[in-house]
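re: ur question from earlier - yeah i can do the single chain one, its not a big deal. heres the input i used so u can compare w yours
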Amino acid sequence: MPAPPDHRASAAPPRPWTVADFAVVWLCGLLGAGAFYASGRGRGEAALSLSLAGQYFGNLAALWAIGRRREAGALRFVVEPRDTAYVGLGLALQVSLALLFLPLARLLFPDGRPPQEVAEMIRDPATSTTLKLVLVCAAALLAPVAEELMFRGALLRALERRGRGFAAAGSTLVFAAVHILGLGGDRIWASAAVALPPIFGFGLVLAWLTFRTGRLGPAVFAHSGWNLLAALAYLVS
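and the output i got, formated as tokens:
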């Protein structure tokens, strides 16, 4: 007696991740931030905290929803206990790249560092201790997970078909460009000239780590170390 047909065999194979997928994930983060901020009804710090939660909720929800229809394990989100050592790499890169571009920062901003929205809120004495802790935790925990899934996960994977060099450079360029949105002040291009070269260099290292290990775990912890040192430096300044 012939075996019944296997309908699963005729199903379309999962699609690979695309640049459009990344764009949807990023847009969902913006929509989530706006929706959660509005739900705070203008209650100052509470609304700001909600907007951060909404941004990462939107990013992660979109990654989950799209990922269900994509190649299993394509984002390579695998974390191992030994990955915690990469926090030290992030700390070291934050210090070394800051020192490397310090002459440029002093040339363009002799009176101080270029303004960054979140950093200025952490530094502001008027910001409550609760909100400062929320911002530091978001920078050290939520941002590394969400951003690595987006940039070294979805976007790097989507561009990899054109070669690893292209994927590393392309995803890092977008990663650096997106951070322009976090710069403040009226000298946006001067701020970008100071802030973006270190971010671009850091992004290239994260892409290299991802290709070298085949996982996102090392990049997530290195990113966490980078953000944590920056947040703590602003906290105590």
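The first helix runs from residue 19 to 39. not sure if urs matches, ping me
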